[in-house]
Structure formats: structure tokens, C-alpha cells
Write a structure and sequence with these properties.
It is built from 6 helices and 5 strands; from the N terminus they run βαβαβααβαβα. By secondary structure, it is of the alpha/beta class. The protein has a single domain, classed as Rossmann fold (3-Layer(aba) Sandwich), CATH 3.40.50.2300. It has a 5-stranded parallel sheet with strand order 2-1-3-4-5, sandwiched between helices. Helix 1 links the parallel strand 1 and strand 2. The longest helix is centred in the last third of the chain and has 16 residues.
Length: 125
């Protein structure tokens, strides 16, 4: 069986690098994207068990990435974890997709790790 893959989509370099390192230590292969354009290019290659997605990014934001996933890989939305600083009331108003979990920045890293592991298991099933 192949190693589960994660896509970390985050425009902040230190956060992206930290998340990437932590997810790799969970035994997943990790690809990264610094904005929605790179994210969509990666997603079009498919094969991800879990996606960790920021919403506020340059060029193409996380909402547009979710819209792309809804059209091309709707099953992946339920294995997507939002890692965002977007206020809850904005999420309530703008989020149209049933993502697996929403983590507000700053993260509870232990819970984020547990959710990544769970989504990776769902993707492997």
C-alpha cells in the first residue's frame, strides 16, 4: 500500500514549513502550495488523503480552492482541514462546503495532528 499524501496550502512560509514538518512526522508524504494557484495545480494531479487549507491567500483564495475541489474532487472536501484566521461569523456566512474540521490560528497542534491522522485513515480506506 502506498504512503498517504497530504497537501498543505498556506501562504505564510513559517506556518507552511511547520505544518509540513509535523505532517511528515505522522508518516505522510507532503506536498505544499503557497497560494490557491499552486494548490489547484497540485490537486489536479490527485492522490491526496488529506488537505490542510488556509483561506486567506494571495492570487486565489481558499474559497476558490474549495470551489475547484467541489467541481473536480468532491470526495476530498470531507478530508479537508481548514487552518485559518478567518473569524467564525465569516466562515458561517461564506463556507459552503462540509470540510472535516476547522482549526483557528493559533492552532491546537495536538488536535490538528489527530485530525490529520484521522483524515489520512479515511483517505486510505
Amino acid at each position: 500500500m502506498s504512503q498517504p499524501r497530504a497537501l498543505i496550502i498556506e501562504d505564510d512560509d513559517p506556518i507552511r514549513n511547520l505544518l509540513s514538518t509535523i505532517v511528515r512526522h505522522q508518516g505522510l508524504s507532503v506536498d505544499t502550495a503557497c497560494d490557491g494557484v499552486e494548490a489547484i495545480e497540485n490537486l489536479d494531479h490527485d492522490g491526496y488523503s488529506v488537505v490542510v487549507l488556509d483561506l486567506m491567500m494571495p492570487r486565489v483564495d481558499g474559497y476558490a480552492v474549495l470551489a475547484h475541489m467541489r467541481e473536480h474532487q468532491p470526495e476530498l472536501i470531507s478530508r479537508t482541514i481548514l487552518a485559518t484566521a478567518v473569524p467564525q461569523h465569516d466562515l458561517d456566512r461564506n463556507l459552503k462546503d462540509p470540510v472535516y474540521m476547522i482549526h483557528s490560528k493559533p492552532f491546537d497542534m495536538q488536535q490538528l495532528i489527530a485530525d490529520v491522522r484521522h483524515c489520512a485513515q479515511l483517505g486510505a480506506a
